[in-house]
Amino acid sequence: MTAIRRLPTTLVNRIAAGEVVERPASAVKELVENAIDAGASRIAVTLVEGGRALLSVVDDGAGMDAGELALAVERHCTSKLADDGDLLDIRTLGFRGEALPSIASVSRFLLTSRPKGADSAWSLRIDGGAKGEPSPAAHPPGTRVEVRDLFYAVPARLKFLKEPRTEAAQVADSIKRLAMAHPRVAFSLEDDGRTVFSYPAIAPSLVEDGEDGGRLERLAAVMGRDFAHNALPIHAEREGFALRGHVGLPTLNRGNAQHQYLFVNGRPVRDKLLAGAVRGAYQDFLARDRHPLVALFLEAPQGQVDVNVHPAKTEVRFRDAGIVRGLIVGAIRNALAAAGHRASTTVSAAALGAARPLGGLPMTAGMGGGGGWPQTSFAPRYSPGLAEAAGAFFAPQAERAAAASDGTAPVEDLRRYPLGAARAQLHGTYIVAQTEDGVVIVDQHAAHERLVYERMKDSLAQAGVKRQTLLIPEIVELGEDAARRLVARASQLAELGLIVESFGLGAIAVRETPALLGDADIAGLVRDLADELAEFGDHLSLKERLEEVCGTMACHGSVRAGRRLTLDEMNALLRQMEATPHSGQCNHGRPTYVELKRNDIERLFGRR
Predict the structure, then answer these.
(1) Is residue 353 part of a domain?
(2) Could you tell me how many helices (H) and strands (E) the chain has, helices first?
(3) Biggest alpha carbon–alpha carbon distance for the chain
(4) 142 and 257, same domain (yes or no)
(5) What pTM does this model have?
(6) Domain with 542 in it: what CATH number?
(7) pLDDT tens digits, 60-103
(8) How many structural domains are present in the chain?
(9) Rounded mean pLDDT of 411-439?
């Protein structure tokens, strides 16, 4: 039997490095967090070959003297824990005391630092875990960490690194997340001599609690101006937890969740609980394959969250997860409800960008001779959300809205409404309306789908969905398994206004349908519901996925594309949209309307 022995310190550090330092981005994250904890106001990161040949982090923080320098690279040495060592009272970004010795054990490591107020600096070199002695050096106040030849001491790890460009992108993402959480700190990244980004520090007065301007400015620099133009502020508190940040309108979405940034007590985290809460808050507004853009900052009371559950400090555990989930879901849904029928400005911008002159002929400014198409780049002027305008204008004019729905209001009056006066219907699908200063194009099916959906939810919440009895039951052939699933949920479907019963092997009979759906495609509705139940699984209650089922019903009960509408019907649809929350997008996150300002249209024709 092999005798038990103590592993050498160098080997222990390399084992720890396998948990803490997976790639250059992991090392940069640890070093930047140390700089933030040291009170730095400027942090500069430099990479060569994506961090494999060199990565350096320079800050202007508190710095260290010779004694602290030698102690900082020892295992389990930290300045970030209280004297009593309470692991639930963590007020910094890192405390495990393994980052520096782990990184130094697998690289050529040079640490240089000078405390503020000191007249000299010190440096310490470590090669593959072999530690040298501190020596005098020249350096301004602050700390510089240089990591060369990362993983040279463990060549097997090099095989798992990606191309330099991929590794550099991972480093950039790691720094961006920290930059979003700490807007008072200036961050810069340089890769192979090229400046990737440089974020100036935001004035402290703009990032105090309750101030959104400074934080949103940093978020715009990282996430883009589209997010800033279409972000809704979040402010909510519950039982000691405080949630701040911004979330994007549903019509501003992506095909993956990479643009969802979540923070707990200033730490960027990738937590399933938080991500699930965001998904739950938006499930009423987005298709399952679309994801919103969010940046949420949760402040949790000390003792209510454990940040020490993962070596890389990317996961957290809450003492009461229900409070956190409820806080996030409630805050986001309240913000979306307050936005009314507002759609993201990117919808109009995309429509303008897609516009092309007919025939591919060059257009002249002002329609005069010579000149040609203007060379200046054109960007749409972002107007305030229609939700605010609708709230101020629509509420006190209910009588005029009722008159508009029956066609008695003059066109001039209707143009004053946020969505204007209907002028025409194109291709049996799109309603064209004229406002006082532009044009609105509405997708009639998407718009009515949202209206039906909201009415179904209201009816269900108040007194249950009213049903209509079919004169002749609809028989739908489904297949044995699909029919069995629907019949098993018959009582729950009845609460939604749909009465079904078995009709032989592999078929069901539909006897009653929700009255709101009108003359819907019953067979198509039932088949879609069967598919929904197959995806939910038998272990989930139908009520848990009520909104998806309501959305499926609403889609089948809405005005279909291709149906001709009268002018009165079109105006009635516009007025209902203005009075219905969330009507800027359908249940799948697609926009229901596009607004083009008159100035934007004139630019398309070279008049401006």
Answers:
(1) no
(2) 21, 25
(3) 97
(4) no
(5) 0.65
(6) 3.30.1370.100
(7) 999 999 988 888 888 767 665 555 555 555 666 665 557 788 88
(8) 3
(9) 85
